[in-house]
Amino acid sequence: ANLSRLSKAHSQGENLTYCPKTSPLIVGRINVRIHSNFTMQEVQRKNPLVVRGGRYRPPDCEARHRTAIIIPYRDREHHLKVLLYFLHPFLQRQQLNYGFYVIHQAGNYTFNRAKLMNVGFREAMKEEDWDCLFFHDVDLIPEDDRNTYVCDVNPKHVSVAIDRNNYKPTYKKAFGGVTALSPLHYQKINGFPNNYWGWGGEDDDIAKRVSRAGMSISRPSLKVGRYKMINHTRDKGNDVNINRFNMLEKTHQTWKQDGMNTVESRVISREYHPLYTNITVDIDTKA
Ligand code: UDH
């Protein structure tokens, strides 16, 4: 009853006080056991305050942060269900105002993760004045809710310690998996490259953009930035991009010509599911 009163207060636009700087709901380390004997409906039932399109605001205080989760996606239904199962409660414990955007690449042509994230940025910002965007692989499950899904002064590489790498950091300029940028960071780097088709390279290109734009990369501690990766084999349509090293040699010339200023795509549909917004997009094929 209390909850419904509060959400009513919310929808009537009553003024709430700001949430505390550190959420009292944080538990720390989470025991992530990946299984899938549950349905999407059950995830829905466990998250009664999540509304259409996968949006949430804390019921009893005004969130200090507005975070959009952008997921590059194709044909990973099982992973998406597991991610939603863990990430919704995780973000609610952090008392964020948040929304989930699944950016689904239409067709069978080679996958293009970075271009999908450009589309995600554009489409999410049309809906809400997000102050932070989390670009999030679908198969990475955070294991500690002290890893707060808010932006730092610099672009943040968030998935620093992954079980598959024995929770060891990979390399100094790593910028894959889960990253967090504010709209200003994103603009400063001219978004992400659109021309990395297939697996690999785009993350390093983004890291180069960050340093070209005069910023550094921030990171959570290895203790807190822990993730479980859901096991999978290489997808069809995402072969290794063998040109990636040549392309990376030229980032310093290309980053201003290719990025958020040149992303071409056609949104085929926008569906507001209970736990996420699905945007299916035709990102075309290699020119
Ligand atoms: N993605 C999809 N569908 C695809 C390809 C990629 O949704 O067909 C998305 C998804 O969010 C994924 C991300 O792009 O988490 C990155 O792609 P990836 O998971 O293929 O990349 P990663 O480096 O794995 O995580 C590479 C293949 C690992 C094979 C290991 C065999 N044991």
From TrEMBL:
Coiled coil: none annotated. It is a single-pass type II membrane protein. Residues 19-152 form the Galactosyltransferase N-terminal domain. Residues 156-233 form the Galactosyltransferase C-terminal domain. Keywords: Disulfide bond, Glycoprotein, Glycosyltransferase, Golgi apparatus, Manganese, Membrane, Metal-binding, Signal-anchor, Transferase, Transmembrane, Transmembrane helix. One of its GO terms (molecular function) is metal ion binding. It catalyses: N-acetyl-D-glucosamine + UDP-alpha-D-galactose = beta-D-galactosyl-(1->4)-N-acetyl-D-glucosamine + UDP + H(+). Its cofactor is Mn(2+). It is an enzyme of class 2 (transferase). This is Beta-1,4-galactosyltransferase. It comes from Gouania willdenowi (Blunt-snouted clingfish). The gene is LOC114477616.
